[in-house]
Amino acid sequence: GTAVANASLLFLERFGTGTDSTVYRAIDSFSCSPQICAVRCSPKSEPYALQSARRRGAFLHREASMAHPHIIRFRRLVQEDSRIFLLMDFCPSGNLHDAIQRRVFEGDNGKVKVAFAPLLDALEECHRLGIYHQNIKLSNILCSEDGSHLWLSGFTYATTDETSPNYRYLSGPHVSPESLQRVPYSVARGFSTAKNDIWALGIILLGILTGSYPWTLADCQVESFRKY
């Protein structure tokens, strides 16, 4: 495999691909004992603003992961050849989307309660620290093979701002209605980053329980949300 960071990081295989990054399984030999880790890699020639967001998100992820066991542990950041590599603990069973596809939670509300409660605690701890995730979705929640443990991940867009006017990266069924740009009062005043996180986690809970989202976007122009 390919090695970077003075050969201290050896890539083994591609594990997943997201909208703005690729995740690899790798061996991190930076410490005395080499360990398997997950590496989230940014694209080449990424805009400076997004690289800055990744570095800020990495700092906030590290701070949050030291505070709660259900936030996936952040290891270190490596920057080389205009690319950013974010190293964290490896979860071989994948994310919550994979678990729902495997029907891990189907018909077992008790398992959902046991797994989801610590995730709520993890988000509460983030907010207590003044860290707001802003990109909570199925692919950013890692899941154990049996569905008994969930871990929050994917802090690229995390912020310490209690309100935000930044709408450009928000999309999908998990996004709160007030954070959508076409809502007049949110454009004028920004939206609550904490409430946006809480809304997202609530929609994800619905997804776990029912196997699907109730709408594609929380917008009155979308019929399913308008009926709600």
UniProtKB/TrEMBL annotation:
SUPFAM superfamilies (UniProt xref): Protein kinase-like (PK-like)
SMART domains: S_TKc
Keywords carried by this UniProt record: Membrane, Transmembrane, Transmembrane helix
Keyword Cell wall biogenesis/degradation among UniProt keywords: no
UniProt protein name: Protein kinase domain-containing protein
Record field: transmembrane: 198-218
Domain of life of the source: Eukaryota
